[in-house]
């Protein structure tokens, strides 16, 4: 059975399937925004905003930071594949991963499908699987290492807010639970990718010995061999390779966080930029376990509530949250819609050629 058999339905059926997956997070997100606007928004907020060149420049800066984020991720794909991917291919894989993240729960994310996107670009499936695991490891490592550094410069009270409330208490509890899980998961990934890649193969083989999974055991063993071989290869990579890969990760995540800083400069310049940046670590850790597609609805609510003490009014918080989601979320839905049809057609073309060759 081909890797792409799950995509054997007619193209229009798959497009309809994707369409409702796009509509669902958009509907959830916009529903929460409308509810928040109805509850909190004061029309006078619009009149208090100075729509001048400074504000426009900060919004443009936010877009530039998102471009920097995509550059970092594309650069990382190029580095991880030893430049087997051209820049165009790396950018396409990155955009498809982001689109997938927008239409799936955050716990699933784009990495779950990234191996298929890399495989479509010519990377062996086992290698692609290990490389996507490596991207996960680098992302989690960035969080685990960076948070203690951030907390050296930003007081704990500023990070979570000095006011004692049910929201702040719940936020802190959820954050430290998720952070602890990330710490353990990072250690597991390090062991599986660097220390004992053969353990992944043994685990997969044991799992697929189960009666209802046994039919795929042959292909899983091949996949496990590829993962083990790639893991051995990763252990031989020079320090410079890992420095570039982690550097690209730092560029990507820092640029993503700085989007919010740029928007605060434009709409709420009196807020502490250090605190605005540091709180993004908390926001994204919480959103990692969001059950809604692309964290729709939860992102908007969390942003307006968590950043509320740094912003003059709830209405202004909604304005900033709306621009934040527009720049960092909705744009990827549009880009994904533009890329996917060509991606599907290329897959159909390859399958048709394979069948004609038989």
Question: In sequence order, what are the helices and strands, one letter per element?
Answer: HHHHHHHHHHHHHH
Number of helices: 14
Q: What's the pLDDT, averaged over the residues?
A: 80
% residues in beta strands: under 5%
Account of the 3D structure:
The chain has 358 residues and is mainly alpha-helical. The chain has helices spanning 11-40, 44-48, 53-80, 87-103, 111-120, 125-153, 156-160, 166-195, 197-207, 217-235, 239-267, 273-287, 298-306, 314-357. The model is unreliable at 1-8 and 351-358 (pLDDT under 50).
Structure characteristics:
358 residues; 14 helices; disordered C terminus
Brief write-up:
With 358 residues, this protein is an all-alpha fold. It has helices at 11-40, 44-48, 53-80, 87-103, 111-120, 125-153, 156-160, 166-195, 197-207, 217-235, 239-267, 273-287, 298-306, 314-357. 78% of the residues lie in helices and 0% in strands.
Topology readout:
Elements: H1 11-40, H2 44-48, H3 53-80, H4 87-103, H5 111-120, H6 125-153, H7 156-160, H8 166-195, H9 197-207, H10 217-235, H11 239-267, H12 273-287, H13 298-306, H14 314-357
Helix pairs in contact: 1-13, 1-14, 3-4, 3-11, 3-14, 4-5, 4-14, 5-6, 6-8, 6-10, 6-11, 6-12, 8-9, 8-10, 9-10, 11-12, 11-14, 13-14
């Amino acid at each position: 059975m081909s890797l792409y058999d799950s995509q054997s339905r007619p193209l229009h059926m798959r497009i309809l399937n994707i369409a409702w997956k796009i509509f669902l997070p958009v509907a959830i997100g916009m529903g929460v925004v409308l509810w928040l606007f109805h509850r909190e928004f004061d029309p006078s907020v619009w009149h208090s905003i100075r729509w001048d060149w400074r504000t426009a420049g900060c919004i443009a800066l936010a877009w530039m930071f998102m471009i920097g984020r995509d550059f970092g991720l594309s650069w990382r794909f190029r580095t991880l594949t030893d430049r087997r991917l051209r820049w165009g291919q790396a950018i396409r894989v990155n955009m498809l991963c982001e689109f997938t993240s927008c239409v799936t729960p955050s716990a699933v994310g784009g990495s779950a499908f990234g191996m298929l996107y890399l495989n479509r670009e010519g990377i062996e499936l086992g290698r692609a699987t290990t490389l996507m695991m490596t991207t996960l490891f680098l992302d989690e490592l960035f969080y685990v290492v960076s948070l203690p550094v951030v907390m050296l410069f930003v007081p704990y009270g500023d990070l979570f807010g000095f006011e004692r409330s049910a929201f702040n208490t719940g936020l802190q509890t959820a954050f430290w639970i998720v952070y602890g899980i990330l710490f353990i998961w990072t250690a597991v990934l390090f062991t599986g990718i660097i220390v004992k890649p053969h353990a992944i193969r043994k685990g997969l083989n044991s799992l697929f010995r189960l009666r209802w999974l046994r039919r795929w055991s042959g292909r899983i063993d091949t996949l496990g061999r590829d993962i083990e071989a790639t893991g051995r290869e990763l252990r031989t990579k020079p320090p410079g390779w890992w420095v570039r890969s982690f550097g690209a990760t730092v560029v990507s995540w820092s640029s993503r966080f700085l989007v919010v800083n740029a928007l605060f400069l434009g709409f709420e310049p009196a807020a502490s930029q250090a605190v605005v940046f540091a709180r993004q670590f908390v926001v994204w850790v919480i959103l990692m376990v969001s059950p809604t597609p692309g964290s729709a609805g939860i992102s908007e609510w969390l942003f307006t509530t968590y950043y509320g003490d740094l912003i003059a009014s709830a209405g202004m918080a909604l304005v900033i949250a709306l621009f934040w989601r527009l720049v960092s979320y909705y744009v990827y839905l549009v880009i994904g819609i533009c890329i996917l049809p060509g991606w599907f057609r290329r897959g159909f073309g390859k399958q048709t050629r394979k069948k004609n060759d038989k």
